[in-house]
Each structure stands twice: as structure tokens, then as C-alpha cells.
TrEMBL record:
Species of provenance: Enterocloster asparagiformis
Family matches, as InterPro entries: DUF6291
Source superkingdom: Bacteria
Name of the protein described by the UniProt record: DUF6291 domain-containing protein
Species lineage: Bacteria, Bacillati, Bacillota, Clostridia, Lachnospirales
Region Disordered: start-end pairs: 60-122, 178-200
Boundaries of every DUF6291 domain copy: 4-73
Record field: compositional bias (Basic and acidic residues): 100-118
Biased composition (Polar residues): 74-85
Amino acid sequence: MRDSVVFYRSFYEAIKELPDEQFAACVRAIMDYGLDGLEPSSAGIAKSIYLMAKPQIDANNRRYQNGTKGGRPKTTTEPRNNQTVTKHKPNDNQPLTIPEPKEKDKEKEKDNVKDNNKKAFTPPAVGDVAEYCSQNGYKVNAESFVDFYESKGWMVGKNKMKDWRAAVRNWARSQRQELTAKGSKPNQFHNFEQRNTDYEKLVQQNLTKKLREDMGDYGKGN
């Protein structure tokens, strides 16, 4: 049982033109499986939608489970009771001499301070990216973004990524430029009359295409 499930735009795009009753049945099939693992009991378009969305939902669940696994905390070694600690008292008559640091030691110390000031990069989870995109209105597929940069070891060109939020903004900017270049696309059902359309076949084809774009098409550029 899960407390949440990612409902992708590709799911919605595939079923939004269906009649209300079929639309509701498809949404229910996706949510029942994503939250409670329940499969549709009868055949029909709702089951077809479930079968198309199931691999993506399963992949999200596996990623979530792997993210919840953690290592055992480190333990500190306590000194044994039979060990004695000898404290040396300073000699009041002995002058205190503080050696001057060497130039190389000073440079190393400065470098260490700079390194400590740099914030270590932590790869985001799909939920982190999705939340950031939702807050800022970016039309970015969080799953595709994380999968893409995971496959590249979170590298941007030849450099290690420092700010994944900046990478999201660049992704969204490139996406908008690509859509502008291609021009607006017609509605996916604009060539079909509702009365004589095989909606089940049409939705299966459309959702398969959308899922492939979300899950794998970006990998061709690697």
C-alpha cells in the first residue's frame, strides 16, 4: 500500500478525450493499482490503460523502495576500562613555543577551507524534481529528467553537476524552444469522429507512444 502515486501527463493525455464514464474508470484503474496494488477485475478499456501504465508504476515503486533502504549507522569504539589515561602537567618554568606555520601548510589550510565551504551535491529523487517543477510551472517530466542524468552519472558535459535545479531550468528552457520551433500540435483526436471511433485501440496506441517518449526516447542521444 502506498500513500502516493505519480500520475503522468501522458496518462491524462491518452484518456482525456474519452467519455466521462470511461475516463473515470481508467483513472480509477491507475490509482487502484498505484496505491493499493489492485488490478482491474474485468476486461475493457480501463484494463488496457492499466496494462500500459503498469510498467511505469512498477518502476516508480522499485525506485521508491530502493531509496528507503539505508546502511547501518557507524559505531564508535569506546576505550576499555583497563586502559589508563596519563595527563601530563605543563612545567610552569618551561617557555611556551608556538612554531610558525610553513607557507605550504598555510596554502593547504586555505584549500581545505575552500573545499569545506563547497556544498556536496546530492542527486534529487523523482519527487523532488516533480515538486520543484510544480512550484515553478515547468512542464518537465521528472521521471525522464532523473533517468537521463542517472545514466550519465549526474555529469553535465565533462563536469559533475552542482545544481540540479539549474539543470531543470535549462531542461525546461530547451523544451520550450523545441516546441516553439515545431509549432503547435493539433489535438490528438482531431481526425476522428467520436461516434465511430475505436477508442480502446486509439488510446492504447497513443499511450504506448507517450510512455516510450517518457521512458526511453531521450536515451538515443547518449
